[in-house]
C-alpha cells in the first residue's frame, strides 16, 4: 500500500485550497448530505438554468479525500449540462470500482483513482457526487435536462 | 502478566497488515479472540451441537449443560448472586433496548425523568429517547466537566423524585473516564429510581462486582472481551427482572400457551425467546475463563498503564489534542485524540499503512462530538495483548502522519 498513490499532490492542493467553497442565494438547489458512519458533511448548492449548471458551491467538513473530491467535482461540473454532470458522476463511480476510466472525461479527477484501492475511503470520495446526484434529481431541475 | 506470552494465544497476530505486523489498537470496538475461545466453539459444534432445553437426547443435555454452565460463569465473573439474574442477549445494544422497552416504558409517565450524561454511546441514549417519546417522560442531561468527568453534586441536583431511570456508562468509550457508578446508584436509589449501567467498556477491562456497585441493570457485550460476536449479557436484580416484560415472544420463553393468551417462564428464560445464542454463550464462558486466569485487576492495570504512557508520549508531539482526563489523571485503557489540521480518517489511513489499527469517526457518540466541537476523532484503545512496543509503533506512525501531511500540505 503506497500512501503517495492515495494522497496525490493535486488532492492535497484541493484540500488545502478548495475551489467553489461558499454559498449561493436561497433560490439555488440545495442538498445536505452526511456520511453517518464517520460524520463527514456536505452542503451542495447548484444554480441550474436551461439544464446547465451555471454556478455551484459547497460547504462541508471532512477528510482530505472527501473535501478534495467535492472541490474537484464542483470545478468539473460548472458549465456542464445536468446530463453531462450525471454522466461524469457515473464515470467517477466506475473509477472508484476500479473500472477502466475515460481519462479525458475525468481530467483532474483522475488523481482520485488511488482511492479505489482503499475500500474504506471510497465513501469519502463519493459523498459530493451523491450530493450532486440528489441535486440533479431534485424537482427543481427540469425533466428534459435530467434525462 | 506477560503480554508477549498472551499474544501467542491469538492467531490474528500472525497476520501481516500492509506488510507490517499487526498493531491492534481498536479494542474498544471489538477485541481479538484467543485460540482457547476458538477451540471451545469448534468443540461445541463438533461434539455437543444440539438445541437446548428441548428433547431428551444426550446431545441436547450436553448443549443445555454447556449453555447453562456459561450462565454460571458469567454470574461468578460479575459477582451476581444467582445465574438466574444473567440474561443472554445479542450485546449491549440489545440489553439496553430490552430494559428501555420491557421495564422503563411500563414505569414511565408524563412528567417522569430519565437522567443521563450527554457523553453516552448512542446505544445508551437512543433507547431512552424512544422510551421518553413513547411515554411523555423527559430526558435530563447531566453536565460534563471540561475533562468529561461527572460531578456527584451535579448528579445530586439532577436526580429528584421525578427521576425513574438513571442511565450511565461505567467507562466512556470516547473519553476513557471512569464514572462513579456506585455513588450514582446510591443517589438514584434514594429517590426510588433504577440505575442502568452500560458496562460495554468496563466489564472487559476491570473487575466488576454488581453487588458492590448496587446497579439495578448492567449491560455488556461478549465480543469486546475475547468472546464471539452476537452474544451479550443483561444482568438485573431479581425483582426487576420479574416485573420486566419480555421483548421477544415465541418458542423457548413460554410456560403455558393458550389460543388467546399465554404465560412466560421465569427470568432469565422468558427473555430468551427462540433458539438462544448457544455457541456464543459457550464461547463467552471460555473467554471469561481466559480473562479470569489472567486476572481482571492485572488487566485493568496493564490497559491503564499503556493509556497513560500514550497520553505522555502524545503530549510530546506538537499539534496533538487528547480528550478526556489530563496526564496523570485516572483513565481507562483508551485515548481519543486529534492531530491538528489532519482529519482523523487521514490519520487512520496513514497509521493503517504502518499496520496500526485505530478507530476514526464519531464513535457512536454524536452529541459528545458536538460538546467537544469536533466532527470526528481518532482513538487508540488497549487490551491485554498490547505492549509498550505497540505504543511505540503507534507514536512513530502518528509522527509519520504528521510529517506526511505537514509535507503534503505545507
Ligand atoms: C460504551 C458502549 N456502549 C455500548 C456499545 C454497543 O455495544 P454493541 O455494539 O456490542 O451492542 C459500545 C460499543 O460499541 C460501547 O462502547
TrEMBL record, chain A:
Pfam name, any one: NifU_N
Q: Where is the NIF system FeS cluster assembly NifU N-terminal domain?
A: 7-124
Q: Which domain of life is it from?
A: Bacteria
Q: Name one GO biological process term.
A: iron-sulfur cluster assembly
The protein depicted here goes by the name Iron-sulfur cluster assembly scaffold protein NifU
Q: Which PANTHER family match?
A: IRON-SULFUR CLUSTER ASSEMBLY ENZYME NIFU HOMOLOG
Q: Which residues form the signal peptide?
A: none
Q: A GO molecular function for this record? A: iron-sulfur cluster binding
Name the family.
Answer: Belongs to the NifU family.
From TrEMBL, chain B:
- List required co-factors: pyridoxal 5'-phosphate
Q: Which GO terms describe its biological process?
A: cysteine metabolic process
Keyword list, A-Z? Lyase, Pyridoxal phosphate, Transferase
Matching PROSITE patterns, A to Z?
Answer: AA_TRANSFER_CLASS_5 (PS00595)
Pfam families of this UniProt entry?
Answer: Aminotran_5 (PF00266)
Q: What is its EC number?
A: 2.8.1.7
Q: What does this protein do?
A: Catalyzes the removal of elemental sulfur and selenium atoms from L-cysteine, L-cystine, L-selenocysteine, and L-selenocystine to produce L-alanine.
Question: This chain belongs to which protein, by name?
Answer: Cysteine desulfurase
- High-level lineage: Bacteria, Bacillati, Bacillota, Bacilli, Bacillales
Q: Which gene encodes it?
A: sufS
Amino acid at each position: 500500500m503506497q500512501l503517495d498513490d492515495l494522497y496525490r499532490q493535486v488532492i492535497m492542493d484541493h484540500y488545502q485550497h478548495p475551489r467553489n467553497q461558499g454559498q449561493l442565494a436561497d433560490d439555488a438547489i440545495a442538498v445536505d448530505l452526511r456520511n453517518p458512519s464517520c460524520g463527514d458533511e456536505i452542503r451542495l448548492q447548484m444554480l441550474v438554468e436551461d439544464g446547465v449548471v451555471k454556478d455551484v458551491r459547497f460547504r462541508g467538513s471532512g477528510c482530505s479525500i472527501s473535501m478534495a473530491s467535492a472541490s474537484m467535482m464542483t470545478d468539473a461540473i460548472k458549465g456542464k449540462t445536468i446530463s453531462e454532470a450525471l454522466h461524469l458522476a457515473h464515470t467517477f463511480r466506475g473509477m472508484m470500482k476500479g473500472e477502466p476510466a475515460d481519462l479525458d472525461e475525468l481530467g483532474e479527477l483522475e488523481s482520485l483513482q488511488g482511492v479505489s484501492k482503499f475500500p474504506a475511503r471510497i465513501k469519502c470520495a463519493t459523498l459530493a457526487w451523491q450530493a450532486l446526484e440528489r441535486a440533479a434529481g431534485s424537482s427543481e431541475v427540469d425533466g428534459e435536462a435530467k434525462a | 502478566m506477560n503480554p508477549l506470552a498472551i499474544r501467542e494465544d491469538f492467531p490474528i497476530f500472525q497476520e501481516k497488515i500492509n506488510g507490517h505486523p499487526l498493531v491492534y489498537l481498536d479494542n474498544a470496538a471489538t477485541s481479538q479472540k484467543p485460540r482457547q475461545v476458538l477451540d471451545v466453539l469448534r468443540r461445541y459444534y463438533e461434539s455437543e451441537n444440539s438445541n437446548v432445553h428441548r428433547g431428551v437426547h444426550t446431545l441436547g443435555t450436553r448443549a443445555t449443560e454447556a449453555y447453562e454452565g456459561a450462565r454460571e460463569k458469567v454470574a461468578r465473573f460479575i459477582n451476581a448472586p444467582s445465574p438466574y439474574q444473567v440474561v443472554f442477549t445479542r450485546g449491549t445494544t440489545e440489553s439496553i433496548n430490552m430494559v428501555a422497552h420491557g421495564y422503563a416504558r411500563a414505569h414511565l409517565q408524563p412528567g417522569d425523568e430519565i437522567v443521563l450524561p450527554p457523553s453516552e454511546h448512542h446505544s445508551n441514549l437512543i433507547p431512552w429517547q424512544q422510551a421518553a417519546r413513547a411515554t411523555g417522560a423527559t430526558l435530563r442531561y447531566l453536565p460534563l466537566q471540561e475533562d468529561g468527568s461527572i460531578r456527584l453534586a451535579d448528579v445530586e441536583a439532577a436526580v429528584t423524585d421525578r427521576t425513574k431511570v438513571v442511565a450511565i456508562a461505567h467507562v466512556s468509550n470516547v473519553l476513557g473516564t471512569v464514572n462513579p457508578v456506585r455513588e450514582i446508584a446510591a443517589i438514584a436509589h434514594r429517590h426510588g429510581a433504577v440505575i442502568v449501567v452500560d458496562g460495554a467498556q468496563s466489564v472487559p477491562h476491570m473487575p466488576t462486582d454488581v453487588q458492590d456497585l448496587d446497579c439495578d441493570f448492567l449491560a455488556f457485550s461478549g465480543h469486546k472481551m475475547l468472546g464471539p460476536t452476537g452474544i451479550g449479557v443483561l444482568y438485573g436484580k431479581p425483582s426487576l427482572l420479574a416485573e420486566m416484560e419480555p421483548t421477544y415472544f415465541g418458542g423457548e420463553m413460554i410456560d403455558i400457551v393458550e389460543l388467546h393468551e399465554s404465560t412466560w417462564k421465569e427470568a432469565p428464560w422468558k427473555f430468551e425467546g427462540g433458539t438462544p445464542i448457544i455457541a456464543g454463550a459457550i464461547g463467552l464462558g471460555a473467554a471469561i475463563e481466559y480473562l479470569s486466569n489472567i486476572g481482571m485487576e492485572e488487566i485493568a492495570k496493564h490497559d491503564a498503564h499503556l493509556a497513560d504512557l500514550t497520553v505522555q508520549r502524545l503530549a510530546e508531539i506538537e499539534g496533538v489534542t487528547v480528550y478526556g482526563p489530563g496526564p496523570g489523571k485516572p483513565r481507562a485503557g483508551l485515548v481519543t485524540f486529534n492531530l491538528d489540521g489532519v482529519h482523523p480518517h487521514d490519520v487512520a489511513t496513514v497509521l493503517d499503512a504502518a499496520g496500526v489499527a485505530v478507530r476514526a469517526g464519531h464513535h457512536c457518540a454524536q452529541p459528545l462530538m458536538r460538546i467537544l466541537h469536533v466532527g470526528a476523532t481518532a482513538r487508540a484503545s488497549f487490551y491485554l495483548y498490547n505492549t509498550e512496543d505497540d505504543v511505540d509503533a503507534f507514536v512513530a506512525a502518528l509522527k509519520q502522519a504528521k510529517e506526511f501531511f505537514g509535507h503534503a500540505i505545507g
